[in-house]
Design goal:
By secondary structure, the chain is mainly alpha-helical. The chain folds into 2 domains: 91 residues, Orthogonal Bundle (Rna Polymerase Sigma Factor, Chain: A); 77 residues, Arc Repressor Mutant, subunit A, CATH 1.10.10. The protein contains 9 helices and no strands. The longest helix is centred in the middle third of the chain and has 23 residues.
């Protein structure tokens, strides 16, 4: 079935048409959502993003414009958007306790054994960084995300993420020295 016929059938609420789309694009959409949610979300989050993509198609088939691309491309964009939205939800819902020693040790700029005063200074400095530097630092060293993944999630270039990480670590070093 062509994209136009598929969309028309979905507009007419054809369950057979949506089933065909699900069978045809599930692996692709799963891989897209999985790549965005890598190291952040669970398998259930990926499944929900893919399901939300199909629900969006079912409820808004008129939003697909065949002149702008194929149904496959449009569904890929919707899945990516769903996954990015899920990342933001997860970030809001999972506030990180900065006292987590795993996070502190991952920074790589302090020794394994920290005096309580130094640890508090570091945590205060991380909290004082402000957004998006604080989030970038947490995603990089707590969630072990690559700069490319962070850039995708925060809508910035990987180079910007690298620069912000570099500057944030300098600020943290200065806070520890003072």
């Amino acid at each position: 079935m062509t994209d136009d016929r598929t969309i028309n059938a979905i507009k007419n609420k054809s369950e057979a048409a949506i089933s065909e789309v699900i069978n045809k694009y599930s692996k692709l959409l799963w891989s897209i959502a999985g790549a965005v949610l890598n190291n952040i979300g669970s398998i259930q989050d990926v499944e929900e993003c893919v399901a939300d993509t199909y629900v969006y198609l079912w409820e808004h088939p008129d939003k697909y414009d065949p002149h702008r691309g194929t149904l496959k491309t449009w569904l890929s964009i919707v899945a990516r958007t769903q996954a990015l939205n899920r990342c933001q939800e997860i970030a809001k819902r999972n506030t990180i306790l900065l006292e987590d020693t795993h996070f502190v040790n991952q920074l790589g700029i302090i020794d394994d054994i920290l005096k309580e005063e130094t640890r508090r200074t570091l945590l205060a400095a991380v909290n004082a960084l402000g957004e998006p530097d604080r989030e970038i630092l947490i995603r990089r060293y707590y969630y072990n995300q690559k700069p490319r993944e962070i850039a995708l999630a925060l809508n910035m270039s990987a180079k910007q993420v690298d620069n912000r990480l570099f500057r944030a670590k300098i600020k943290l070093r200065e806070a520890l020295v003072n």
